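Deliverable D5.2: sample structural annotation.
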Amino acid sequence: MAWRWRAITAARDLEGWIDATRLEAKRRHGLLGRLEVLPYRGHGTGSRFFLRGRVLEEKGITRSMQDDTLWENLRNMARRFASDEIAGARVRATFGGSTAFAVADEEGFFDIVLELPTPPDTAQSWHGVEVELLHPESPGEGPVRSTGQVLVPGRARFAVISDLDDTVVHSSATNIMKMAWIVVRNNAHTRLPFPGVSAFYEALRRGTEDGIENPIFYVSSSPWNLYDLLEDFLDVHGLPAGPLFLKDWSPTTLGKHHDHKLGIIRTLLRTYPDLPFVLIGDSGEKDPEIYAQAVAEHPGRIEAVYIRDVTSDERDAEVREIAEKVNLTGTAMVAVSDSSAAAEHAASMGLIPADAPARVRARLAASS
């Protein structure tokens, strides 16, 4: 396999050289546009914030609207993937009296860890972190700044980790060409969640007690280039806001769906050791296998696993076999046909109010 690793490394180095050469040429000829800092929704605890982001040349993407044409959707998608990242950019993040610095990697990504001398205000879950570009200097007037939002769970009974593709929204993730066409021809308004999903997730967020706010984290193998589209999708369709963990589609990470998702699950369980978790996925890829491994690695930490059935009978039999093994550990893994079935089970476990399944069924009926 050494030859494969050398080929991947060579491809990554070539990509880096092309990007650096193109960026330098644009600088030299005065063609470089204004730069932007794009912080993604982060997560944290009472003592530490974790925030990821990217430094890019401004892409000129317009905010999607319900009546956008196919051409406008295609243009925005092309701009997302034609972005020029700023390798080696230096940024500073501040929150209260805490400051941290980071240097962007070859794809323009930066990761910031803010150490907090005192816990943030517990009256709110989301906290604004100011991020400023220090180097290089951006064309245009004034400094380049953005505000990133960090979620710190307060009074929570459990946390949720949910897949997105074919779990929250129909994507045909097992068919690359079909999935690509669905993604590029739609926007945040025209891509619709599965019926009842927003009501079910809102019930999970609110839990069964007043004052509870259970955090929801979203994990996807979609590239970070689609971040703004997915963030808008959650907001437009009334799904609870939460950090999104996407992938860098570089030569060294393509195809590593299992490692990516399991790695995020491990990180979140380690970050919040006092919270049990609920995992939500689908049968289309490897969510049952990944979640079963997470249950085995973290005994007693996973309260329930919900798998949306989107596959054929042969795959369904495999999922049932995995579920039977998981159920023997004391964690419930349930294959469900829709959000109503998941809500019924969640209510029986006391995860959501007893009347929540009726609200989910009403949403399902309204969409039919």
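Annotation notes: The first strand starts at residue 35 and ends at 39. The mean pLDDT is 87.
The annotation will be released with the project's public dataset once the embargo ends.
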